[in-house]
């Protein structure tokens, strides 16, 4: 969520709050950000299907809306942040160990939020 968060219900609930969905390509570090009104499965899957090449590997957190990604022709690995911030999967056929984490997109959020904090007062259209 981009915008002012109120901690412990203190302070004035001012300003616009926007949910942003982000996609990062691991090999090139290209990032795409999409403002969304809600974070349900239909919205997220539509963004993924339109912007990710079929057959690609997708790494996500444990958000329930991502559970049907495999049915759309993607390879999907998830890490539950409630238990750990990275996870190793072992391919049963090849024995290859796949390390799953969401550090790249989390780092992108840090830089994006910092950028938008610096341009405080900019129109929501920009």
Topology record:
Blueprint: E1 19-24, E2 31-36, H1 41-51, E3 57-61, E4 75-79, E5 86-90, E6 97-101, H2 103-118
Parallel strand pairs: 3-4
Antiparallel strand pairs: 1-2, 5-6
Short description:
The chain has two helices and six strands, in the order ββαββββα. It has helices at residues 41-51, 103-118, and strands at residues 19-24, 31-36, 57-61, 75-79, 86-90, 97-101. The chain is globular, with a radius of gyration of 17 Å.
Q: What structural keywords apply?
A:
alpha+beta; 126 residues; 6 strands; 2 helices; two-stranded antiparallel sheet; 25% strand; two-stranded parallel sheet
Please provide a written account of the structure.
The chain is built from two helices and six strands; from the N terminus they run E-E-H-E-E-E-E-H. It has one domain (19-118). The strands form three sheets. A two-stranded antiparallel sheet has the order 1-2. With 126 residues, the chain is an alpha+beta fold. It starts with 18 loop residues before the first strand and ends in an 8-residue tail after the last helix. Helix content is 21%, strand content 25%.
Biggest sheet statistics: 2 strands, antiparallel
Q: Helix share of residues?
A: 10-25%
Which value, in Å, is the CA radius of gyration? 17 Å
Give the ordered list of helices and strands: EEHEEEEH
Tell me the span between the first and last alpha carbons.
16 Å
Shape: globular
Q: What topology, given as strand order, has the largest sheet?
A: 1-2
Give the strand content.
25-35%
> Which residues form runs of ≥5 with pLDDT under 50?
none
Q: Would you tell me the structural class of the helices and strands?
A: alpha+beta
- Strand segment count: 6
Domains counted in the coordinates: how many? Answer: 1
The overall pLDDT, averaged over residues, is 83
